[in-house]
Specification:
heterodimer; A: mainly beta; 16-stranded antiparallel β-barrel; 3 helices; about 10% helix; globular; B: alpha/beta; 6-stranded mixed beta sheet; 5 helices
């Protein structure tokens, strides 16, 4: 009797374990991740809130992605990140967490905290293993504001229309929701160093659309996107909390126009974007102060795969703030030369040299107390693993 | 003069044979896939995550080989990328929340077994490998 009972329990456990394993397999659970370590050295000025003029290893990222696909049309995934770059980050944050329902190639929708598919590279700008560059062109993809512009809370609808052939294919994305610029974001860095704090960050409604036309010319895509951000406002303080007030940003658009040609060993891309922003600071009992920013940004880049493991590339990235006074702080012109070596599918190294003219991007005053020199050379070495 | 013409013909023949090396890989699919053939454009779109259906409406799921000559040859001939760049492209999709990584199988036998038993799957193997239980798609 005991033997029968033991046999029945063993059979039940075996069946249960098999069923559990089967159900996990049915969920198609995947775990992926990557980690990178960077080293920065500048000839002049300290950049990206690091002590780069002494050489700085203060750039570490680690990402973990867990996804499941319980049915063919539904995927659920979450991605977390540890990020530190100088004084930025040093915390674990939620990159995105979303459910994605893809009815077919023509229509799908994802919602939750989702990547914002604006511009050419916005939704992949934080994915270091996917490109040759250590830093993407900072005129359009500033790393010190990356966490804020990468994703929004809300949804994205997407799909592809057309069947190729003479007309090519048209990919569309439309998004809407709410964006939050964190209190430690690069956008708020200058005013934070001036003693104006926005402890809860700033944010508000955002929506937009993007079109990517995969042209009949194999490998060529041209596209455009435009995002509209509604009035953003936030409470601010200064004088160690002695004065309280409100920071408001008037509604603005963020148009981007871009093209990408990618075929065999060659990649060529270019993008133009504009970011016009009007900021209003109002402290109780004091007259308001206004600041208007009008960034015109562009870059052109190319890379070539020299061997199966070695890729080389270069880009020219420029930004001009048309509302700023004349001088080096009004612009940034960055000639960059890059190389990437893939030791295997999982391990790679990058080396990059930036020749930067102008101080419009990437600098803070705390780490450059004696002022900024107009030109800097930045060398970056980076190693990464991914699985 | 004749010698130079002859050498040119030999060179041309050699280059044609070199291009034809792509034909050493065959594309296989589960019997449930309606299509009997697939265009190179469709194949590229499916294997780069840009499409999940073929022109005739067949819904397909790509299956990869982990490595090896057939894998390199397929990617070079039909996707236009090396293995490292190809997987970097998929990682972009995975880490931006746009797709799941396709299943990667150890060898041709495992790919044939998986495709044979999994509806909608499409993969590739060396032409010389046994492939009973799967249909072979004509690539045009």
């Amino acid at each position: 009797m005991k033997k029968i009972l033991a046999g029945a329990i063993a059979l039940a456990l075996g069946a249960g374990a098999h069923g559990f394993a089967q159900s996990l397999e049915d969920l198609n659970i995947q775990i992926h991740g990557y980690a990178t370590q960077g080293f920065l050295y500048t000839t002049d000025n300290n950049i990206l809130t690091t002590h780069s003029s002494d050489g700085s290893p203060a750039w570490t990222e680690a990402v973990l992605n867990i996804g499941a696909q319980p049915i063919p049309k539904l995927r659920i995934a979450v991605q977390g990140r540890f990020f530190v770059l100088g004084n930025f980050g040093n915390s674990i944050t939620l990159d995105w967490a979303a459910a994605d329902y893809k009815a077919d190639d023509r229509f799908g929708v994802r919602f939750g905290k989702v990547k914002t598919p604006s511009g050419l590279f916005n939704d992949i700008q934080d994915i270091d293993p996917s490109y040759i560059w250590s830093l993407l062109p900072q005129s359009i993809y500033p790393i010190n504001s990356r966490n804020s512009i990468l994703a929004h809370y809300g949804g994205v609808a997407y799909g592809t229309l057309g069947e190729g052939g003479k007309l090519g294919k048209l990919e569309y994305r439309g998004w809407g929701g709410e964006r939050q610029i964190g209190s430690g974001d690069g956008y708020l860095l200058e005013q934070t160093e001036e003693g104006i704090l926005a402890p809860n960050g700033i944010g508000g409604a955002t929506y937009g659309a993007a079109l990517h036309w995969r042209t009949p010319l194999s490998g060529l895509m041209v596209g455009a996107s435009d995002g509209r951000d509604a009035t953003w406002s936030s409470k601010i303080t200064t004088g160690n909390g002695a004065l309280a007030g409100t920071e408001s940003i008037a509604p603005f658009n963020e148009p981007n126009y871009f093209a990408l040609y990618e075929k065999n060993k060659v990649m060529v891309a270019a993008e133009y974007g504009r970011l016009p922003v009007s900021v209003d600071l109002q402290f109780t009992g004091l007259p308001p102060s206004y600041e208007r920013i009008d960034y015109r940004n562009w870059y052109a880049m190319a890379s070539y795969k020299l061997t199966s493991k070695l890729t080389a590339g270069a880009y020219d990235s420029q930004q001009v703030n048309h509302q700023a006074v004349l001088g080096p702080a009004r612009y940034s012109k960055d000639w960059t030369f890059s190389g990437r070596y893939d030791f295997s599918q999982y391990l790679y190294a990058k080396a990059e040299e930036h020749i930067i003219d102008g101080t419009g991007i990437g600098y803070d005053t705390d780490l450059n107390p004696n002022g900024l020199k107009p030109n800097t050379k930045l060398t970056i070495l980076k190693v990464g693993v991914s699985f | 003069m004749k010698k130079s013409i002859l050498s040119s013909v030999f060179l041309l023949a050699a280059s044609i044979l070199a291009v034809d090396a792509g034909a050493q890989v065959i594309v296989i699919a589960n019997a449930s896939v309606k299509a009997s053939g697939v265009s190179k454009d469709d194949l590229k779109d499916v294997f780069t995550g840009n499409a999940t259906t073929l022109k005739d409406g067949s819904k397909v799921v790509p299956v990869l080989l982990k490595d090896g000559p057939a894998n390199e040859e397929f990617l070079k001939a039909y996707v236009g990328k090396g293995d490292t760049a190809y997987r970097a492209g998929w990682r972009s999709l995975v880490f931006s929340g746009q797709a799941s990584m396709p299943k990667s199988l150890d060898d041709d036998a495992a790919a044939v077994a998986f495709v044979a038993h999994t509806p909608g799957t499409i993969g590739y193997i060396d032409k010389a490998s046994p492939h009973e239980g799967v249909k072979v798609l004509d690539v045009h």
